[in-house]
């Protein structure tokens, strides 16, 4: 079993979710409120380790009225357990799970870092050898009570998740500017598919303007 997974992201018209320097201020104010309403609705929110390092996000509901119990469980996909101990996702505002890979587990669980994380109440889940096995992780999260999960990037994790058929819905904010750059991060990076035929098919079920931005909502078809 797996949670119902909604990928949410903001991109420029040219499909970039961050520049090569990591600059990623894309959504307008109204879209940020929409994002926080979605955060309030879901049981969990997941990002890749590079997003934690680049953005130091809180992953809590803080741009709209909310109670502490509205915060989703935060999940970081972090094979080598590189999450900085001072990262905001380690604070007490919400529960946090770090998902690591088995090849790095033994060394990590005897370290002072591990002791520090567990002292802060952070949970760990290990699966896969060099990279986190995302199917196993989804099953673990579902069994832990996370029935709906918001995926908030970045590009590499987004591609692995869609390639493995783990994304159910995609909600995209398209902002009215372009930044270009072959080294910018796009909505889906990873290794990509070789042919268009292999592309994951989507069905647009809603679209609307929000402030200056355009919101596109898709169901994922061939999972
Ligand atoms: N505009 C937006 O909506 C938005 C949202 C989130 C992130 N971002 C941007 O995305 C950038 C980071 O994206 P990224 O692609 O470098 O990193 P990422 O956040 O996708 O993290 C990827 C890392 O996760 C780890 N990982 C472990 N198991 C994995 C697996 N099975 N599949 C994939 N990854 C696995 C690996 O260490 C991998 O390098 C940042 O610059 C951030 O600002 C933008
Ligand atoms: N929807 C959306 N629009 C953006 O313009 C943007 N940069 C992100 N980026 C996703 C990132 O994971 C974090 O949402 C932000 O870094 C905000 O951090 P908070 O958790 O609110 O502290 N997401």
From TrEMBL:
Domain of life assignment: Archaea
List the Pfam families: RibD_C
Q: Which reaction does it catalyse?
A: 2,5-diamino-6-(1-D-ribitylamino)pyrimidin-4(3H)-one 5'-phosphate + NAD(+) = 2,5-diamino-6-(1-D-ribosylamino)pyrimidin-4(3H)-one 5'-phosphate + NADH + H(+); 2,5-diamino-6-(1-D-ribitylamino)pyrimidin-4(3H)-one 5'-phosphate + NADP(+) = 2,5-diamino-6-(1-D-ribosylamino)pyrimidin-4(3H)-one 5'-phosphate + NADPH + H(+)
What is the E.C. number? 1.1.1.302
The answer to keyword NADP applying to this record is yes
Q: Which residues form the Bacterial bifunctional deaminase-reductase C-terminal domain?
A: 3-216
The metabolic or biological pathway listed in the UniProt record of this protein is: Cofactor biosynthesis; riboflavin biosynthesis
- Show the InterPro entries listed in the entry: DHFR-like_dom_sf, Rib_reduct_arc, RibD_C, RibDG_C, Riboflavin_Biosynth_HTPR
The GO annotation for biological process reads:
riboflavin biosynthetic process
What are the alphabetically sorted keywords of the record?
Answer: NADP, Oxidoreductase, Riboflavin biosynthesis
Q: Which GO terms describe its molecular function?
A: 5-amino-6-(5-phosphoribosylamino)uracil reductase activity; NADP binding
According to its UniProt record, this protein's enzyme class is oxidoreductase
**Subunit:** Homodimer.
- Into which family does the record put it? Belongs to the HTP reductase family.
Name-wise, this protein is: 2,5-diamino-6-(ribosylamino)-4(3H)-pyrimidinone 5'-phosphate reductase
- Which species expresses this protein natively? Methanobrevibacter smithii DSM 2375
């Amino acid at each position: 079993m797996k949670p119902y997974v909604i990928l949410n992201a903001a991109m420029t018209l040219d499909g970039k979710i961050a520049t090569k320097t990591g600059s990623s201020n894309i959504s307008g104010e109204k879209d940020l409120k929409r994002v926080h309403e979605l955060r309030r609705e879901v049981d969990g929110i997941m990002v890749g380790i590079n997003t934690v390092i680049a953005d130091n996000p809180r992953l809590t509901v803080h741009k709209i009225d909310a109670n502490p119990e509205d915060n989703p469980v935060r999940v970081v996909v972090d094979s080598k357990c590189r999450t900085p101990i001072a990262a905001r996702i380690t604070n007490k505002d919400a529960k946090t799970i770090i998902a690591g890979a088995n090849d790095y587990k033994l060394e990590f669980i005897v370290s002072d870092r591990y002791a520090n994380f567990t002292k802060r109440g952070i949970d760990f889940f290990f699966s896969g050898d060099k990279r986190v096995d995302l199917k196993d992780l989804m099953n673990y999260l579902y069994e832990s009570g996370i029935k709906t999960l918001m995926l908030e990037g970045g590009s590499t994790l987004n591609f692995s998740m869609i390639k493995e058929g783990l994304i159910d819905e995609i909600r995209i904010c398209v902002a009215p500017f372009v930044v270009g750059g072959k080294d910018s991060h796009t909505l889906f990076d990873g290794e990509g598919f070789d042919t268009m035929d292999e592309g994951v098919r989507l069905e647009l079920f809603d679209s609307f303007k929000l402030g200056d931005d355009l919101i596109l909502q898709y169901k994922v078809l061939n999972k």
